[in-house]
Amino acid sequence: MVSRDVVAMVAVTLDGYVARRDGSVDYLEKHPIAEFDFAGFVDTIGALIMGSTTYKQTIGWGWEWGDLPTMVLTTRGPLDIPDGANVQFTAAPTAEAIRTFSAATQKRLWVFGGGNVITDGLIGGAVDTLDITVMPEAIGSGIPLFTEAYDGPLKLEESTGYDNGAVRLIYQTQP
Question: What gap in Å lies between CA 79 and CA 94, rounded to an integer?
Fold first, then answer.
């Protein structure tokens, strides 16, 4: 089902980190989820929004999003844009940028990361769905999903356990 909501979808370690301190997400490679239909999820997405650190890391991995409209939240000024990418930059406050970009998106807007962007979007009431896949590994330290307290609302809509030990939790954030 395709909806025009704003989804923050992210994998985290069992202890709540989206990445190691150096940005590594090697825990994802160690725990692949064969039965997760990532391509099906991406087909529901009309645009991406992310912070500049996540953007630079994504470019370093090799840009996989083609010309999918992408908004990068940054106060650092324009950054490099991969060939063929459809990227724009903004220094607007996170929740405002998410709402504005979502209004211009025909399908779902994916809040791609990182933790600051997801947290600010949730606190600002701009994220409708929090889709977390908890991976079966604790790394002890790193970049947390939540950079400050968030007290909801969160209503669990769906949970799925995978053969590799991961658990996907989908929460609606609007009452």
Answer: 18
Task: Decide yes or no: CATH 3.40.190.10 for domain 6-172.
Answer: no
3-state SS class at 116: helix
How far apart are the C-alpha atoms of 158 and 60, rounded to whole Å? 33
First-last CA distance in the chain: 21
Report pTM: 0.92
- pLDDT confidence bin for 174, thresholds 50/70/90: confident
pLDDT band at residue 4 under the 50/70/90 scheme: low
Q: What is the DSSP string of 16-73?
A: SEEE-TTS--HHHHHS--TT--HHHHHHTEEEEEEEHHHHHHHHHH----TT--EEEE
β-pairing, 45-51 vs 70-73, is parallel
Which tokens belong to 173?
Answer: 């954030």
The radius of gyration computed from the CA coordinates of the chain, to the nearest angstrom, equals 15
Where do we find the tokens 């490099």? 80
Q: What are phi and psi of 129, to 5 degrees?
A: -130, 130
